[in-house]
Design brief:
The protein is mostly beta strands. The chain contains 4 helices and 30 strands. The structure holds copper (II) ion.
Length: about 400
Amino acid sequence: MIPGPEIRITAGERVRHRLVNDLPQPTAVHWHGIRIENAMDGAAPLTQAAVPPGGTFDYDFVAPDPGTYWYHSHDRGFEQVARGLAGPLIVDDRAPWLGEQGAATRELTLVLDDWLLDADAAIVEDRWDDLHSAAHDGRMCNTVTVNGSAYPELHMQPGERVRLRLMNTATARILALALPGLSPHLIALDGHPVPPRAVETILLGPAQRADVVIDMPLAADAPTALLLDPGNGEWVDVAAFVATGEPLAPVEDDVRPLPGWGTLSAPNLSDPQREVLLMEGGAMRGMSEAVYRGETMDFRELASNGMVWAFNGVAHGMDAPMFRAALGRTVHLEMTNRSVFPHAIHLHGHHFEVLARSGALNTPGDVRDTVLIGADETLEIAFVADNPGQWMLHCHMLSHQKAGMMGWFEVA
Ligand SMILES: [Cu+2]
């Protein structure tokens, strides 16, 4: 099924699932955004060997934090995720929120994806590792779906207040979303609660999530829908909200904040460990040279090895960590994107705060596990390295990841 079945547990509970690999190629499962124990992170080949065809792997871990997360293949992800190996992982809070004063009465998980389909609506098969798209904005597709359907109708009672758990499982497309006429209020980003704030648009990079409360009007002036800007400023419908059933008395109260986590350490910025992440490469800018597998190569040689991107001068640097942090130390990471394309940078095993001097695509103070960085932007983040192990750090535009935007850091 597309998306994969929703896994739902309560914060602090264990997730236990056996991966049975019936694919003709190796695979592994990553539990995106979960501050997980390293051995269960599914980040092949760093935290486990990829599971071969016919093999199995038992995942067993605690999900410490409530919120909207997802799971997906983390081996050959540019193909496997694009073929649909992804699903929602919802961690409920121990404290009740639904049904409380000012909260929603119901919630909907909306998994947004982008598919490259041919005229027969079959997946285009032959462009998985196309270097041209990897050097641009990734494997951009042509069909946006919500929970696996093109333009579904979602039934809402007039006056109803509903929590939407929006997630972007696309491998390349940044989704600019809007919910006009539904007074959307943002309440969480990447699982982490934010003080409720009214929003006109919601920008979701690949792998990012946003929880949004909407109020279905009693009588709408216009059809209500989830809108998407495909990149040309012309908003199109991707799902319809259809008024059905008895009207409810509209909720007049301000949107109730989600309960705070209380489980995430605050960064200590008085004397952090300072690290930098320089992103280079891609079409129109390129890079003169980078190290790949221990060898310095020029642009042509890199491209002949499928590499068109580098982090700190290293393409797909799996041999050594980008940095090491002592357990409990605050890391201040300054990221600079010296390319003409945006990226969606994901840190495994940690959530980080977006600091004040940041690019246009983020709000300072937000806590995330995946952050967008625009062309020629510099972004500063900070996090407490409180989860021991070897953690991947990569672009979640998965053809960028494959073509060099991959590294890791160690916490010990
Ligand atoms: Cu990227």
